[in-house]
Amino acid sequence: MIQDDIINELKYIPEAKLIELYDLIHYFRLGLSSETAQQSSQTNDFTIDKSICFNTLEKIKQGDFSGFSEITDIDSYIQNLKNEIS
């Protein structure tokens, strides 16, 4: 196993250099942890909540556009979205 190989190699590194090696390994690991957390956060940012989508679609079917206050012309907005997609 690679961890055993690394531990074995540590036996041949002078004591004075172990602190530098520890710092390197420690901050490398922290960087990996930070990357993983950041990727996880970004993934969550783009996760679609299906229940919210279904509820919104249901409201639209019923003609309830109350949640779309920033959109003044629904038909134009929908047409613009269709144009962007195609």
How would you describe this structure to a colleague?
This protein has 86 residues and is mainly alpha-helical. The chain has two domains: 44 residues; 36 residues, no CATH class. Helix content is 74%, strand content 0%. It has four helices and no strands. The longest helix is centred in the middle third of the chain and has 31 residues. It is rod-shaped and about 75 Å long. The model has no long low-confidence stretch (mean pLDDT 77).
User: What are the low-pLDDT stretches, counting only 5+ consecutive residues below 50?
Assistant: none
Which of globular, elongated, flat, extended, rod-shaped describes the shape?
rod-shaped
**What's the total number of strands?**
0
The largest sheet is: none
Q: Using the CA coordinates, give the radius of gyration.
A: 27 Å
Quickly count the helices: 4
Helix content: over 70%
Domains, number: 2
How far do the termini sit from each other? 52 Å
Mean pLDDT: 77
Q: What is the beta-strand fraction?
A: under 5%
Find the structural class using helix and strand composition. Answer: mainly alpha
- The sequence of SSEs as H and E is HHHH
